[in-house]
Structures are given as C-alpha cells and as structure tokens.
Amino acid sequence: MPVDLPRELWDASIAVDRAYAPLRARTVSLSPARVRLALRTPEPTSRALRVTRITARFTEIALAAAVTAFAFIGSTSVEPRSSIVEETSTGTTTHTIAAFDDQNFFRWIRIGRYAAPADLVDASVSLVSGADDIAPVTNERAGLAR
Amino acid sequence: MATPKAAKKAAVEDARSDRELVYAARDGDMLAFDALFYRYKDGIFRLGFAITKDPSAAEEIVVDTFARAHRALARLEPEGSLRPWLYRVAVNLSYNRRPRKNVILSALEDATEEVVESGERSPSNLAELAELRRVVLAAVDTLGPKHRTVVVLHYLNGLNLAEIALVVDCPVGTVKSRLHYALQRLRAHLAAHPELGFEPRAILSATRGRTPVPVIEPVRSEE
Predict the structure, then answer these.
(1) b/e string for A34-61 if b means 16 or more Cβ within 10 A?
(2) Predicted confidence band at A138 (pLDDT cuts at 50, 70, 90)?
(3) What is the pLDDT of residues A62-99, one digit of tens each?
C-alpha cells in the first residue's frame, strides 16, 4: 500500500504505472562497440563555443577587409610628393629625397597609382577620332602650358 | 581470444560493483566498461525513449551517455551505483534534443504486445486500455520537464525518491513534492476524459482485486 501517497492520487498513480508497463519491458540491442566508435570521433563542441568561434572568425575577416580598404583608399587618394623642392628664399633648386615614410610606406600595396601628368600630349585633342579629316588644332601642345 | 558472444556473456554476468568496474575500466579493462554498458543500457534507452519519443534518438542517447562516461572515467568516483550519474547525463541529453511534436508512444504497438501477453482479454478491452494509455502518456507530455523527469524516473525506471533526488540533484522532499504535483495534474487531465471511465473504482477494478503496487516506496536509508 502506498504509504506516502494520498489516497485520492492512487488512481492516477496506477494509471501512469500501467501506461508505462509495455515500455518497461522494452530492451535495446546495442553493442559497446558503438560507444568505442563514438569515442574515436572528436567530442562535439558546445553551441556557445561554436558561436564564439564563428563570431571571432567574422571579426577577423571584417578587420582584414577594413585594413585592406583603408590601405587601398589611402594609397589612391594621396598625391605623392615631388622630390624637387623650390627654395624661393635662396633662388636655388635643390633635389631632396623624401623621408623614408613618404617614400616607401604602403608602396607595396599601391595598386592604383597616380598617373603621371600628361605634360606632352593633350588627351582631349589627341583622342579625337578622325583627326585627319579636320583642320589642325591650334592648341595642340596646350598641355605643356599646364 | 574470446569470441564476441563469450565476451558479451562475461560482461553481462560480471558481478563486480559499479565502483570496482569503474576503477577497472579506468585501468583499461574494456570488459569492465562493457559490463557497465550492458548493466544500464536498457534503462537509459527507456528513459531517452520516454522523453524524446524517438527510438533512434534514444539509441544515440545511450551511446552518447556511455561515451561521456568513458571520457569522465578518470574523475568518476561512484560511492555506490553509477546509475544516478548515468541517468542524469541521459536526462540532460534527452532534453537537449528537440522532441518530435505530437508523437505519442504507439498505443497500437502496446496493444499488440498486450494481446501477445494475455489472450483472455477481449479486443474492446484491449482497445480501451490502449486508449487510456495513450491519454495518460499524452497527459505526462503536458507536464514540465522537471515534473515529467520525476514521473518517468519513478514509474518507468523504477527509481525510488532518494535515487531520483540523486539524479535530479535536489532534496528528497522536492522530488516528493514534484511527484505529488505531477499526479494531481495528471488526475485533473484524465478526469477531463469521462469517456475513458477514469474513476478510482474503475482503475482499482482494473487491478482485479489485487492490492495496488506501492508506487512510492519508503525512502531507504543509505548505508
């Protein structure tokens, strides 16, 4: 007789007991070899650890992309300094070497270099198609003036 | 070298205590680990099956539980039985798996087993029993995880209150309280199905005059 169970709960208790009766007799045919096989595979990592790893990976990629973009944009938007410095006070022209930082910094990733100024040819003139059919342009060497 | 059948027989019949088996397995005795496996695999399977309602998931839970036990051999110090530790791991693994929705343990399968077991019952009687079983198990599924675990461990795995307390890691009084609450909820749920004739007298008559089996054993003092 159930000593700890109130009498009004006996019926529910018996019903649950009977409901689980078929399952109580159930067995499974498994071999310990399955466990040994499972032990050979690496232990699955927890979800939190996986999320942390993925977040770290994304952060790493984003940082690399940001540094690359910064370097690329920086290299294309800064005009290189000329090495010829006019010293107006003395009236002489001296050739100076730019500082190491100005000269070499990020030079290896300067993908988009500044094009050299077109001092000799005016592109607007020379690229006109059918130039032979029209009159010679008078300001052909206007580029020199710039 | 022993054949697989002989090795299994030796593992099944190993009479050493859990503690001795754990220490032996720690020293590399695979037969000792196999003995632990054969000793508890069925109980863990039933536990996983009752919670997940998926036999293949329950098998995986058995394998995962023992894989964890093997990895934890170095720090396992079972004072008595290893069962509470194994069941605790199995319960956690079972609840970590998303159970199938709206799947109840097959009442038809149970009814078939019942036919095989006792031929004197009429088909209508068996059908009623199967329906009652289906409703009861559905009612158990409506319980929260804490209460369901206590019910499953007690009625399916046959653990007493003290053993359940070790598994769920809470005082015996809490286990008792959860069991009472669960039974009250189940009773209310079953009372909402008058077509099943769920009344105390009906259930007691189903036992054919036998004294109901004590479902809550008095807590044994552990010595």
Answers:
(1) bbbebeeeeeeeeeeeeeeeeeeeeeee
(2) low
(3) 999 999 998 888 776 556 566 555 666 666 666 666 55
> Taking CB atoms and an 8 Å limit, are A12 and B190 in contact across chains?
yes
Q: What is the count of residue pairs from A and B with beta carbons less than 8 Å apart?
A: 136
Residue indicated by tokens 């096989």: A37
> What is the 3-class SS of B8-44, one letter each residue?
HHHHHCCCCCHHHHHHHHHCCCHHHHHHHHHHHHHHH
Note whether B155 contacts A9, CB cutoff 8 Å. Answer: no
Q: What is the ipTM of this complex?
A: 0.73
* B residues 108-137 lying closer than 8 A (beta carbon) to A: 109-110, 113-114, 129, 132-133, 136-137
Distance from CA of B30 to the nearest CA of A (A): 9
Per-residue pLDDT reduced to its tens digit, A4-56? 677 777 888 888 888 888 888 888 888 888 888 888 877 667 788 889 999 99
- The C-alpha of B204 sits at a distance from chain A's nearest C-alpha, in angstroms, of 7
Segment among A109-113, B11-15, B21-25, B187-191 with least mean pLDDT: A109-113
Determine the longest span between alpha carbons in chain B, in angstroms: 62
CB-based burial, B16-50: b 16+ in 10 Å, e otherwise: eebeebbbbbeeeeebbbbbbbbbbbbbbbbbbbb
